[in-house]
Amino acid sequence: MKTLRHISAILLMLVPLLVWSQEKTDTLSAPHQDSNYAGIKPWRLGGVITGVSGTTAGIFLYFQNVWWADGSARFQFDRGSDMVYALGMDKYGHFWSSKLTSDLFCDMLAWSGVKKRQALWYGAGYGILTTAIVEIKDGFAPYWGFSIGDMTANTAGALFPVAQEYIPVLRNFHVKWSYDFMNPSYYKTLENKTDKPFMDDYERHNYWLSVNVHGLLPHSMKPYWPRFLNIAAGLSAERINGKGGGNHELFLALDYDLTKIKTKSKAINKALHYLNHLHFPAPSIRIVPRVNMYGFQF
What we know:
Elements lengths: L1 H19 L21 H25 L22 H23 L4 H24 L8 H19 L6 E7 L25 E7 L1 H4 L12 E10 L8 E10 L9 H10 L6 E7 L3 E6 L1
């Protein structure tokens, strides 16, 4: 459920970003250079700060009434149950969603005229701050507790765009998410689980580390590998029962780097940047726990 809350906040913040991206403005790309820096645009920056602050406050007020209304008076840490119910798969969700949050806020600030490296750090700070508030609130909730594992994953995800800026080789790696719509869910056949939202159905979540092969090849070999074609390692799980049961699954798959598709529309290029956070169906092979080939898999 905590990952669902993070995703909900991100989707709400997408609305103003998609509106702003229709304008002919500078976009954020890696490496982030400031050669065309034109200074702060006060009206845009004011709009971003007001919009994000208001949206964030509204989301937390909603969560307060829905998830934290029965909060306890005593702060507590999670005692390890968060590593059991989803076999740790939720930690990858925390990383991915925090990375996306950091990206979004960074782009909003860059659109407002903030220098791009500064925007990266502010984006990371915003991602860490908002997820820390969620975890602290969970620490006072009777059914959860502050999760060190969740907070570690949140922090790492929020800082990943910063690391990609300062360590260029990391720009060849993308963390992606996909959801398996094709196979039936064992988790949702269990008692009291049939009405759970899809974000709780971690059995059908896949998290991928997509590698830009073209970017890592020596120059003499680059012509032989398509720029848009990546190789991805994927992690999922099967037969999760919420009590520690189930097995992890490991995949290798082809993947598509949508950022290599360049158009004359900055709005479309920006949309491709965010769509690149998703892994689209592609040929794959499952390595663990049993070898299996898939011609077209999420």
